[in-house]
Automatic annotation (TrEMBL):
Residues 303-394 form the DUF234 domain. Residues 5-197 form the ATPase domain. This is ATP-binding protein. GO terms for molecular function: ATP binding. PANTHER family: ATPASE (PTHR34704:SF1). Keywords: ATP-binding, Nucleotide-binding. The lineage of its organism: Archaea, Thermoproteota, Thermoprotei, Thermofilales, Thermofilaceae. The keyword Nucleotide-binding applies. InterPro entries: ArsR-like_HTH (IPR011991), ATPase_dom (IPR011579), DUF234 (IPR004256), P-loop_NTPase (IPR027417), WH-like_DNA-bd_sf (IPR036388), WH_DNA-bd_sf (IPR036390).
Amino acid sequence: MAGRFIDREEELEYLERLYREGRPHMVVLYGRRRIGKTELAKKFIEGKKSVYFHAVRQDLRLEAERLARVVSRALGTYVEPDFEEVFSRLAEQGRVVVVIDEFTHWVEEDPRILTVLQRVWDEYLAQSRVFLLLVASAATLVEKSFSYGSALYGRRTGQWKLGELEPRFVRDFLPNYSLEELVAVYGCVGGVPFYLSLFDPSRSLEENINALFFSKGGVLYEEAENLLRYELREPYTYFNIVRAIEEGATSYSEIADKARVSVTTLPKYLHVLEKMGVVERVKPVLGRARPVYAVRDNYLRFWVRYVLPNKDRVELGAYRFRLQEMWDYLPLVFEEMVRRSLKHLWRKGVLPFLGTCGKYWERDLEVDVLCLEGEKVLALEVKWAELDAGEARETVQELRRKLGYREGYYGVVAKKIHGYFEGLKVELADLF
């Protein structure tokens, strides 16, 4: 399954639309590691005149030599090992896609490369038909590279932050797993294509989790540390913040206290984690309750919840993960899956409309999913359980009470609802 390209239709259409314009473009494709940026770029250049180059962290004179060799092979003629010469030759090639994968490696090696790229764009590419696709994993460095005051400020003609796959695509990786097992897989790795491809369909879920997360040679055992160390100088400070949020701290003061971080420096750390897509600041869709912080990245959430506390025992070979340990975690995963599947449910006709959607809370009241569109209201209560029709009706009545019996659509999301239920219902199978 690792070599199979899944979904990304919206992203491909975006790139194709820009490509069809025929004019020069500098497009930035970025997102966390393992999210599928390289595969998307390679899919996009299929059947097109193109040059693909993967940057590495080394002296830029050596990088210029590598790039010149790649371009020389593509053009069938010698190109001098100089950035300006390389791009001036590419500018003569008509409509060609040039992919520089992990271009921020160059920026980390020598920030002056931004000035070189500015000059290359202004003098050669801006008057050409070259489609320059810059791919990057370091979100904070991408932000700095194109911010006001940077040499590349104002040159970018498009950008796309590549996110996770929708929850429904988990089934494409593990078609023989039960729907409940797919929820557990999503709770372990979210919709990150590379991580999903690591699960062996011939193994049980518990065997896969232990092999990937809880053995010293497991691919996902140290991946979390590598993921944060790749972009951050203080990875364990960030881990402590993520863990504090996962354990229930939601306000600045609570997070700072639990993570042992100064309240004055915490906003800087949270900003970086938000840019990376690790945490998110959640505001209620209705009312004036204060926003809270939540962990958005399921892989890191699972890692800080289960792997980090047990690392000593894993190192000794004295720990084995049991699926029962996830029982209190799966209701949270299911609720998040529902919120991330709303567009899919609407497209399928399961939901009547979407509008602005999110959670709602006010004092002691909480609604799992609330969507507003003008005067229209759609409210859903999410239950990680099988319900009979009577329990579903009681749930809807309670939901109506929470919202003051406001007119609208009220429904229940559950694993399964047995018996005749006349209200709006969403079952686990609908998510896939």
